[in-house]
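DM from R.C. (forwarded with permission)

"hey, sorry to bug you on a friday — could you get me a structure for this? deadline for the figure draft is monday and I only need the backbone to look sensible"
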Amino acid sequence: MRVVCVAGARPNFMKVKPVMDALETGGCDVILVHTGQHYDPELSDVFFADLGIRRPDHFLGAGSGSHATQTCRVMTAFEPLLRQLRPDIVIVTGDVNSTLACALVTAKSGALLAHVEAGLRSRDWSMPEEVNRVVTDRVSDFLFAPSPDAVANLCAEGYRSDQIHLAGNVMVDTLLANLSRATSGDTLIRLGLTPGSYGLVTLHRPANVDDPAVLRPLLAALGEVARLCPLILPAHPRAAGALREGGLPADVRLIPPTGYLDFLALQAAARLVLTDSGGVQEETTVLGVPCLTLRESTERPITITEGTNRLAGLDPAAIVAAAREVLAAPPAPRVPALWDGKAGQRIAAVLMTGPLTGRPRPTAVASPDGPLVAAGAARMIEGVMLIGPVEDKRHIFYVVVCIKIGFAPRSVKRPV
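My reply, with the result:
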């Protein structure tokens, strides 16, 4: 079986590495494609060495740009390569523009598509990543969910049960495989830090850092928190300049950008982490480190209900208050089920054991006499098919499809 694994940004490599390893162990021909969506030559060599991941077989060099420009560049570069490689399956991870671009090309190529980290929903349609997630899931043959809430989202949206697989979290696979290497290194010594003596900050989402009206209050809040607990913030020189222009408090210490192992070591020894990153919410949960998410929503609510994360929002007073509470009474460590370092193996097992030929494609439906979606029901009432979950405490949705005539519901909600 020939499998193409796609990665475009640094988190994608952390997610695809365990899947690649498991597939190659099983004898699959695995081809790694780097779209070049995020490519920093200063960090690239360190990052690949840290992860122990082999060099990509193909580099598309898409570069940066607007969402439309970047997606277009990846699609036009990936399409001829896919025709040349003729894989059985293409695996995309996460929710970046490369994920969406390669998913669309794959769906039209005839190859099967697998989405790792499927079903995550923030319910915030202003987030480009939310659009990418929803569209990628829609055209995927295999939906590998990291947590039960993601499975519930997919069921509520009407996906077939044969598409959905609760696999666990592949980022956790990479974290657990590298944790001892990270914590046994000299990261803290080089930075003059001691365990539990500092807080760690990451800020990278455009919605937070590109708008001065949002960034300045955030930085002011960080300054208040830094008086309670010294803060460090890894930032590329270009980003560091923008942060200083935005009013970065003197109490927040900027450090150069870090490789994967150094950043993992910093997280593991932090007293508190403040972030707008989705992946960091997951990593801090596994590490048992308190996390405050500087956003109004999260696509990873399980890190709140079954982890150490707390949604602090963007209001400066609320952020400082949350930091005071967490520093005074840290949450007890807890980790969701199946975040055990074996997600990549579960994904590979599904792809390698299931028949590939004759498989129903993403928009196929089951027989009217059989189940249509997991935890759902379908019935015909005077030419109208009601499709959706019968009982779900959080999501009671019904999609009404008129067989004889078409009409729009009186109340129309956003897609997710």
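R.C.: lifesaver. The first strand starts at residue 2 and ends at 7.
me: no worries. The first helix runs from residue 10 to 25.
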